[in-house]
Amino acid sequence: MEVDWIPEFMIVSDLDNTMVDHKDPDYTSLLRFDALWEAYYRMNSLLVFSTGRSQVLYNELRSEVPLLTPGIAIMSVGTEIRYGDTMEEDKGWVKELDVGWNRSIIVEEAEKLNLKFQCESEQRPHKVSFHVTKEDAPEVIKKLTEAYTAHKLKFKFIYSGGIDLDVLPEGAGKGQALAYLLKQFKIKGTTPKNTLVCGDSGNDAELFEVADVHGVIVGNAQEELLQWHEQNAKSRSNVFLATERCAAGIIQAMQHFNFTPNISPRDLPTPLIKEATPEGAIAVAHEIVEFQLLFERWFKGAVENSDEVFQRLKATLLPECVLVNPWGVQVKPLVAIEMARPLYGSLKGKNFRIWIDRIRINQISEEVWAVQFDKWLKSDKELSCRLTSGLLKKKDGTPNGVAWLHIHETWLLDYAGPTPRYVKGPKSA
Ligand code: GLC
Ligand code: MG
């Protein structure tokens, strides 16, 4: 599904070591970003991931880390553009990449040099990839350039992470893929109001060259990207060098460029009962994120163990609200929630977290919103996902001015869709 609305904001982010910090086993900054995006941006903005990974390795990452579902995924170093939950490929882009490209010659000439090919999944129709050391890279690139030029091919090299060498069609790459997307948006009149591109390594450099975008080079960036910045973008105010690592650097850039909101709900204390300030869909999204976050904090003992805090949980459950849980049992959450009271702090020190993905909201009357989202739960033992539908209704005197009227949860089990997450849901209550 292509974009047929005007995004308020678009983030185009690399994954490894930009969105995802592989050095943080708790994924703290990624979870901060997730909450920020779902609470404030999901319903009117566009999240784009631009990764060197193929779909195979991308899915692997999704099964390992709390990665949100993007609106668009640009994979294999800008050689594949895929839309929405179905990951439908942009055929127009494929056609453009065919120009001057001859994959078998690219491979043949590399074989003559005995280069070390990357694994099979990373060899794509418009991407041939090798592992080459920093020392060998200049010589390898020189020899391949001579060979390919002799065949009159149109190609380009991208060197990343001090080890990965990609050969792509001349018109490919993360930057050109983004430029192509922006061109399509322009034709349809759906250009995002602001765009922030985010990266850490060599294959991201092109993203910062795209016209009319802001950019952030995260604090843990690779030498090659910092060098590129030094030589090409030092005096450009639209490219920000973050001091924070990965997703924390992205949030830091949102603050630097004043893209608001830019404070994650995870960085705020749990709001207690107060006058409602947000309105409409924003208030609803807010409630979904905050409500689950408070649960996580309650079980982890990360909030005060007080009636006041527990009252915050209860305040947004209407007395008539029914919850159908994933085992098909109907409960009254306002009653059932009492079971959580003595469980305060029971998951302290455990690797427990809850995060929300794919919030969708439809206002169905002046007072009622229908919502759908994925609720992920991770503990030391398991990862599970509840596909959740619900209704929220206007209610004054609650933190977000709305309260839960209905909740229905279903296990998202071994979901084998186009973007599978290999999830084992609990089999019994
Ligand atoms: C990812 C891809 C790999 C590529 C690298 C740099 O790691 O899996 O094929 O070479 O990004 O672009
Ligand atoms: Mg990276």
TrEMBL record:
<keyword id="KW-0378">Hydrolase</keyword>
<comment type="function">
    <text>Catalyzes the final step of sucrose synthesis.</text>
</comment>
<protein>
    <recommendedName>
        <fullName>Sucrose-phosphatase</fullName>
        <ecNumber>3.1.3.24</ecNumber>
    </recommendedName>
</protein>
<dbReference type="GO" id="GO:0050307">
    <property type="term" value="F:sucrose-phosphate phosphatase activity"/>
</dbReference>
<comment type="pathway">
    <text>Glycan biosynthesis; sucrose biosynthesis; sucrose from D-fructose 6-phosphate and UDP-alpha-D-glucose: step 2/2.</text>
</comment>
<dbReference type="InterPro" id="IPR036412">
    <property type="entry name" value="HAD-like_sf"/>
</dbReference>
<dbReference type="Pfam" id="PF05116">
    <property type="entry name" value="S6PP"/>
</dbReference>
<dbReference type="InterPro" id="IPR012847">
    <property type="entry name" value="Sucrose_phosphatase_pln/cyn"/>
</dbReference>
<dbReference type="InterPro" id="IPR006380">
    <property type="entry name" value="SPP-like_dom"/>
</dbReference>
<feature type="domain" description="Sucrose phosphatase-like">
    <location>
        <begin position="8"/>
        <end position="258"/>
    </location>
</feature>
<dbReference type="InterPro" id="IPR023214">
    <property type="entry name" value="HAD_sf"/>
</dbReference>
<dbReference type="InterPro" id="IPR013679">
    <property type="entry name" value="SPP_C"/>
</dbReference>
<dbReference type="InterPro" id="IPR051518">
    <property type="entry name" value="Sucrose_Phosphatase"/>
</dbReference>
<comment type="subunit">
    <text>Homodimer.</text>
</comment>
<dbReference type="InterPro" id="IPR006379">
    <property type="entry name" value="HAD-SF_hydro_IIB"/>
</dbReference>
<comment type="similarity">
    <text>Belongs to the sucrose phosphatase family.</text>
</comment>
<keyword id="KW-0460">Magnesium</keyword>
<feature type="domain" description="Sucrose-phosphatase C-terminal">
    <location>
        <begin position="285"/>
        <end position="412"/>
    </location>
</feature>
<dbReference type="InterPro" id="IPR032710">
    <property type="entry name" value="NTF2-like_dom_sf"/>
</dbReference>
<dbReference type="GO" id="GO:0000287">
    <property type="term" value="F:magnesium ion binding"/>
</dbReference>
<dbReference type="Pfam" id="PF08472">
    <property type="entry name" value="S6PP_C"/>
</dbReference>
<dbReference type="GO" id="GO:0005986">
    <property type="term" value="P:sucrose biosynthetic process"/>
</dbReference>
